[in-house]
Amino acid sequence: MKKKKIALLASSALVLALVVTGLGLQKLVSSKIAARVEREIPNASGVSVSIPITELPGDLTSDEIKSVKISIDNYFSTERKTSSSLSISAKNIRKAQPQVIGSLDVVATIPVSTMVESSEFNDAQIVGNALLVPAGAGGAGTARLVPRYRNNQIYFEIVSVSFLGNEIPASSLPDDLQNQVKSRSQRNLKVPEGMRVKSVALNSKGLSLNVAGSNVQLSGLRTGIEVES
Fold it and tell me: Which pLDDT score, from 0 to 100, does residue 78 have?
């Protein structure tokens, strides 16, 4: 009975040692990846990296890193003078240079003011997944706008207008009104080479742009995801 207890304690100690070692390796590999990201994307700050501990053995012995999640708190565009945050999911990342990412999915969150201020949508505010803008004489009504993407351009579209408690759907509004909103808010959207736009949406943090691509070079992310102001 005593021998079994000693063996159990020894096994527990071994498992604990392996877990501690694994966590140490995980932290080391994550810090190295974060440093590489900061070198390749010099305008990025607040970089944090997460890799599954179960994939570490393969990551250390193979030519690729199986998967990694990268969070960038702030990416500053020197060209547009705007900032955004990036959430990156990357798979099959080649270690050798040039560093190519087999599968890349990025969500960029850009302050909605980038589009709103230049469009002169006064007193606009985000509510849920829409932008509410005063409409009509003296702002008596409220227009509900949502972002759209087409042909490398992003713009706002009217979903409905509320006036004196009545909601009027976009289908009942003059086409000219929809065209005016689109022309005022229409901006070119620039994404890294080899990537495509999957979706655009509004949330409490701003304008969320989801882009994805295959066999993308890490250095290509230097250009960022930008909305022309």
Answer: 57
pLDDT confidence tier of residue 199, bands split at 50, 70 and 90 = very high
C-beta separation of 156 from 181 below 8 A: yes
Q: Which residue from 165, 129, 166, 167 is spatially nearest to 147, judged by alpha carbons?
A: 129
Planar angle of CA 223, 226, 227, nearest 5 degrees? 160
Amino acid at position 216, single letter: V
> Which of 118, 143, 120 is CA-nearest to residue 130?
143
Considering its fold, how many domains does the chain have in total?
Answer: 1
Determine the distance from the C-alpha atom of residue 150 to the mean position of all C-alpha atoms in its chain, rounded to a whole number.
Answer: 19
Q: Is residue 18 part of a domain?
A: yes
Domain that holds residue 41: 2-97+213-227
Whether the CB-CB separation of 83 and 111 falls below 8 Å is answered with yes
